[in-house]
C-alpha cells in the first residue's frame, strides 16, 4: 500500500512539474512558464527519476521546447549577435565588407569594345576585380546568336601577371584627350584602378595599326592597341582552358 501511495505521489509530482513546463497540455488555466525544464536521471539504460532544472539564461534557442511552452526562449543580446553572424555568413567566407575591395592593389579592370551595325549592338566586355573575379560577356546578333556570359575566379598568380602587364605597358601614364571618341567601326572603353591610380579611357574602335595613323596621338593609341590585344588573347585563352579542358577524361 505504501509503495502504491509513493508511486502515486511521484506521478502527481511529475504531473505538477510537467504542468509548469507544458502548461498548454496539463494545466487547464493555460498558464505557461519558461523558467524550469523537466530532466530525466538515468542509471545505466534505465530512467530512475525526474527532476526540475532551471533553464540556462544564456540558452539561445530550443525550438521544440519553444513550441511546447508557447514562449520564445532566447537572450536578446545573443540573438542580436547571431543576426550579425548571419549577415557575415551571407556575404561569404573571406569576402570583404562593402568598400574594402577598393583597398586592393588591383581594385578593378574593365574593358569594353562594341559597335552598332547591321546585326544590332555587338560588344565584347570583360571585368576583373581585386579578388580575381573575372566576368566575360560577348554579344552578337549574327545568325540570331544570344549573349555569351562567363564567370570564373582567377588565381592570385594570374592576377599578379595582369598587374605586371598593365605596369609594363605604362598605360596609366597616358591620356585620352587627343584620342578620337567615335567612328563607324564603334568605340571602346578601358577602365583600370591600380596602385591608387584610376584611368577611364574612351576611344574609337581600333582594329589595326593602320587606324591610328594620322591621329593626334598615335603613340598613346598604339599603347592602347597592344594592351587590348594582349588582354584579349590572355582572357580568351584562360576562358577556353577553364570551360573546355577535361582533367578527368
Automatic annotation (TrEMBL):
Record field: transmembrane: none
InterPro entries associated with the record: Mago_nashi, Mago_nashi_sf, Ribosomal_mS33
GO biological process: RNA splicing
Region of interest (Disordered), residue spans: 79-115
Sorted UniProt keywords: Nucleus
Gene3D superfamilies given in the database record: Mago nashi (3.30.1560.10)
Main localization (coarse): nucleus
Localisation per UniProt entry: Nucleus
Basic residues composition bias: residue spans: 105-115
One cellular-component annotation, GO: exon-exon junction complex
Family: Belongs to the mago nashi family.
Name of the featured protein: Protein mago nashi
Organism: Coemansia interrupta
